[in-house]
Design goal:
The complex is a heterodimer. By secondary structure, chain A is an alpha/beta fold. Chain A has three domains: 26-103 and 182-191 and 203-247, P-loop containing nucleotide triphosphate hydrolases (Rossmann fold, 3-Layer(aba) Sandwich); 113-180, no CATH class; 283-369 and 438-513, Rossmann fold (3-Layer(aba) Sandwich), CATH 3.40.50. Chain A contains 17 helices and 19 strands. Chain A has a six-stranded mixed beta sheet with strand order 6-7-8-3-9-10, sandwiched between helices. Chain A has a six-stranded mixed beta sheet with strand order 15-16-17-13-18-19, with helices on both faces. A four-stranded antiparallel beta sheet of chain A has the order 2-1-4-5, with helices on one face. In chain A, strand 1 and strand 2 (39-49) form a beta hairpin. The longest helix of chain A is centred in the middle third of the chain and has 16 residues, at 196-211. Chain B contains 15 helices and four strands. Chain B has one domain: ABC transporter involved in vitamin B12 uptake, BtuC, CATH 1.10.3470. Chain B is mostly helical. In chain B, helix 5 packs parallel to helix 7 and helix 10 packs across helix 12 (236-262). Chain B has a two-stranded antiparallel sheet with strand order 1-2. The chains are: A alpha/beta, B mainly alpha. The A-B interface holds A 96-97, 110-117, 120, 124-127, 129, 133-135, 137, 152, 154-156, 158-160, 163, 165-168, 195, 197-198, 201, 204 and B 1-7, 10, 13-14, 17-18, 21-22, 26, 29, 31, 208, 211-214, 217-218, 220-221, 223-225, 227-229, 231-234, 287, 291-292. Chain B: InterPro entries: ABC_transp_permease (IPR001851). Chain B: Keywords: Cell inner membrane, Cell membrane, Membrane, Transmembrane, Transmembrane helix, Transport. Chain B: It is found in: Cell membrane. Chain B: It comes from Streptomyces griseorubiginosus.
């Protein structure tokens, strides 16, 4: 694989003359190691960004992109390695002003203050002071207007910042960064919350600013955006630098291969399909519509395992949550095992025969300080006793059965769930989903934050469940979760774009999730 | 998503927006007008009051209203600052009793009640303010330094401070206060009680500080998004310390004015005030979620509550019913500000 980096001579030339190779890189990080406790977030990572280029940083979740951003913006000090700006060493972490003059980041999470006006957000803590050392509001507004005009941002400086759209907010944050003197701006997944028209406007803006000498580091999950807007691309995988190359010289197949890694590429698992075509379909979704997705239609047969893949923001999670009633769709129908539960009602979906492992176990999965027994039986109070009273003995017997069935490592059913490891916590959530012998099992990111062995175990249980005739829907972007699926539906920007039968290569699936056509 | 601004359609896109957010040729943004939302209500109450009883708009009555509200208004001032930085301080009402209580305890000569007579009378005011500083420092230490929950910390302090006052006073009232303690609550400056002047001057100063200084704006930044405030280089912890300690000192000052006016410190001084204080702040447009509202709005809130009380008294409503009506007024005022503000209050 071609390594497109050129040798860099660290000559302290002050000039900023376009892309002449002699100019020092705007930013250079070398040998960066960053550990958070036992996890190594960056392991000898490096990146070199030259003046005036738009540099893409891509990698799958957990590749170390966010950690690199926090090192480059001075939020974290690297454990090892150096960061230089224009050939000079980075300032100390405490010198916020010095950092702000060199680099700015537009995060996915807003750093503006919604209750204040745009003008005040721009000049926070450096207001224009008039006579008597009081803030001159006309002065602040005038300077804000000037700043917004200079960078052609069409936003009313007196509007409350909370009223801005995501797009306007990004423009305001970029303008603010530029006003500090920074000419190197990191955009952390700027397109994630934008629609197509807004993305185009953002790209026009980036090209404009690029012409005016601003350098960008562009982080995105959407590879076609990288090809559209970026000059150079750096790929990170497993906390390491994999490759840096001009975008034009790196074909899509190679880029995807660099992201997924060759080693894992052809690991396929064989599994006999347990689909029972004659039985009632476990799930039939027809023409489902909402803000997050459009016209989603699919069926899951009894005993079939179907994957729902897609990048963050593709709508896969929303579809799965709509199926189990956590959200109500704007239109379309959900039929679980031949019954139509009332839309937007979790109890109705559960009654129809759905079992559910939610996206974030800490948030929606369990009540941490309640016991395993209580958590595992939370969704089936009717089986625990009559008239709303709980029979503790029956609850504990039920829970002990589950603990054995799912091999949860615990001294007994009374232990609070918070005392378990991540993998065992997820088993409790899974136990609850299986508590009522569901006809349909819906799993969202079922193995997130779970160790390898628990992961295999959980996925094995899913297969076992499918063998009993239960339909399974796995909404995930984790390839390992999707490998055993009979087929995988890929969502991209709210639509099901591709259906891939079992036996896919990682390349194909990742490309489909990123919305890239490998044959193009 | 409210789409705006493709470069070439910018002019049309911005035009209607300006009209929505500003009046008078763009000089007064609507956000400012929201601060004035209570002014019409105040005018209406004034008119109603005048119809109910012609005494209402006479200078003596108005001064009476302002003076009775001046002490609580200072608590509102303190609480408003604290709410804007997204904290809350319940213990203000106890500080209001304890601070002058400790001063009276140390100053009032033995023989008369529970006084110790340890210090000469001139020390009363410094001691009062020092107690305010001390309470503020303890609160800040627990909330900011040790990261304890502000609501529970100040609830605990409310109970502790009230208990200390009951302890040192033996549950009784301190009389025979020294002249220096009586002065702020009884003196007249330019024909108006000093406490009204103090209250108005402090509010004016607070309006200027919160509206026109970097320090004041940092309060809003911290309340609105503390991470963004830190990223903008604001030393958030230091600002929080200053706000909480200043709040307690203001409460001590309020206690001093009340003790002076009543020429005594009751062991229950300030008891139950905090609820009205919160109500006035919220009615005045201060968000319990921080970062929102102005000092002027808060002043209007407390003024409105006291004017309504005064009108009710003048209308001859039996004193036994004033409490129930007060609560009702707070609920109605909240409902009105929910309708005019248009946002869910949390």
């Amino acid at each position: 694989m071609s390594d497109g980096e050129r040798a860099v001579t660290p000559a302290p030339a002050p000039a900023n003359d376009g892309r002449a190779p002699a100019a020092p890189p705007v930013v250079e990080a070398a040998g960066i190691v960053k550990r958070f406790g036992p996890t190594v977030a960056l392991n000898g990572a490096r990146i070199t960004i030259r003046p005036g280029e738009t540099h893409a940083l891509v990698g799958r979740n957990g590749a170390g992109k966010s950690t690199l951003v926090s090192v480059l913006t001075g939020l974290h000090a690297p454990d090892e390695g150096t960061v230089t700006f224009g050939g000079e060493p980075a300032p100390r972490l405490s010198e916020r002003d010095a950092w702000r003059q060199r680099v700015a980041c537009v995060y996915q999470k807003s750093t503006i203050i919604p209750t204040l006006t745009v003008a005040e957000n721009l000049f926070l803590n450096r207001h224009h002071h008039g006579r008597g050392r009081l803030i001159s509001w006309p002065g602040v507004r005038r300077r804000a207007q000037e700043l917004l005009t200079t960078w052609s941002v069409d936003v009313d400086p007196q509007a409350p910042a909370g009223d801005l759209s995501v797009e306007q907010r990004q423009f305001v944050e970029i303008a603010r960064a530029l006003s500090f003197g920074a000419r190197f701006i990191i955009l952390d997944e700027p397109t994630a919350q934008l629609d197509a028209a807004a993305i185009n406007r953002l790209f026009d803006r980036i090209r404009d600013l690029q012409r005016q000498g601003v350098t960008f580091l562009f982080i995105s999950h959407h590879l076609q955006e990288v090809y559209e807007i970026c000059d150079m691309v750096t790929v990170f995988r497993d906390a390491r630098h994999i490759v840096t190359a001009p975008v034009a010289e790196l074909p899509r197949t190679e880029l995807v291969a660099a992201m997924t890694g060759e080693a894992a590429a052809d690991r396929l698992e064989e599994r006999a399909s347990t689909l029972d075509a004659k039985a009632t379909a476990a799930l039939a979704v027809t023409g489902l519509n909402s803000e997050a997705f459009e016209d989603v239609t699919f069926r899951i047969g009894a005993g079939e395992i179907v994957g729902l893949a897609g990048a963050a923001g593709s709508g896969r999670t929303e579809v799965a949550e709509t199926v189990v009633g956590l959200r109500a769709a704007d239109g379309g129908g959900v039929e679980i095992a031949g019954r139509r539960p009332r839309p937007g009602s979790v109890p109705a979906a559960l009654a129809a025969g759905a079992g559910f492992v939610p996206q974030d176990r800490h948030h929606q999965g369990f009540v941490p300080d309640m016991s395993i027994a209580d958590n595992a039986t939370l969704s089936v109070p009717k089986r625990l006793g009559k008239n709303g009273f709980l029979n503790r003995g029956r609850r504990d017997r039920l829970a002990e059965g589950m603990i054995e069935h799912l091999a949860i490592k615990t001294p007994g059913p009374d232990l609070p769930v918070s005392a378990l490891s991540g993998g065992n916590q997820q088993k409790v959530v899974m136990a609850r989903a299986l508590a009522d012998d569901p006809r349909l099992l819906v799993l969202i990111n079922p193995t997130a934050g779970v160790d390898v062995r628990s992961k295999e175990f959980l996925l094995g249980k899913v297969e076992e469940t499918a063998q009993t005739g239960t339909g399974v829907l796995i909404a995930s972007d984790e390839l390992d979760d999707l490998r055993m699926c009979d087929r995988v539906l890929v969502m991209f920007q709210g639509r099901v774009t591709t259906e891939i039968a079992r036996g896919w290569h990682d390349h194909d699936l990742v490309a489909a999730m990123e919305g890239v056509d490998l044959n193009a | 998503m409210p789409e705006t601004v493709l470069a070439d359609t910018a002019a049309q896109a911005v035009e209607p927006k300006l009209k929505r957010t500003a009046l008078l040729g763009g000089r007064i943004p609507l956000a400012r007008l929201r601060d004035l939302a209570l002014v019409p209500a105040i005018v209406v109450i004034a008119v109603v009051g005048q119809i109910v009883n012609p005494v209402f708009l006479q200078a003596d009555n108005l001064i009476n209203v302002l003076q009775t509200m001046s002490e609580m208004a200072l608590l509102v001032l303190a609480q408003t600052m604290i709410l804007i930085v997204k904290k809350m301080d319940l213990s203000l009402e106890s500080t209001m009793g304890l601070a002058p209580g400790v001063a009276a305890w140390l100053v009032v000569p033995t023989g008369a009640g529970h006084g110790l007579g340890l210090l000469p009378g001139g020390w009363a005011i410094p001691v009062t303010l020092a107690v305010g500083v001390l309470v503020g420092v303890i609160n800040s230490l627990l909330i900011i330094r040790f990261g304890l929950n502000g609501f529970i910390v100040t609830l605990g302090m409310l109970i502790v401070l009230r208990g200390i006052l009951t302890g040192i006073s033996g549950g009784q009232t301190f009389f025979q206060l020294p002249q220096s303690m009586l002065y702020p609550g009884t003196a007249e400056w330019f024909g108006m009680p000093a406490s009204i002047w103090i209250c108005l001057i402090l509010f004016a100063a607070a309006i200027v500080v919160l509206g026109w200084t970097s320090f004041g704006r940092s309060l809003y930044a911290i309340g609105g998004n503390v991470d963004a405030a830190k990223a903008a280089g604001i030393r958030t912890d230091r600002v929080l310390w200053i706000v909480i300690v200043t709040g307690s000192v203001l409460a001590a000052l309020a206690g001093l004015l009340l003790s002076g006016r009543l020429a005594s410190v009751a062991s229950a001084q300030g008891n139950g005030y905090i609820f009205t204080v919160f109500a006035a702040a919220v009615i005045g447009g201060i968000s319990l979620n921080g970062g929102k509202g102005t000092m002027f709005g808060a002043f209007c809130g407390i003024l409105l509550l006291f004017m309504i009380q005064n009108v009710l008294t003048l209308a001859g409503v039996p004193a036994q019913w004033i409490g129930a009506l007060n609560g009702l007024i707070i609920l109605v005022a909240l409902a009105i500000s929910r309708i005019t503000g248009g946002k869910v209050q949390e």
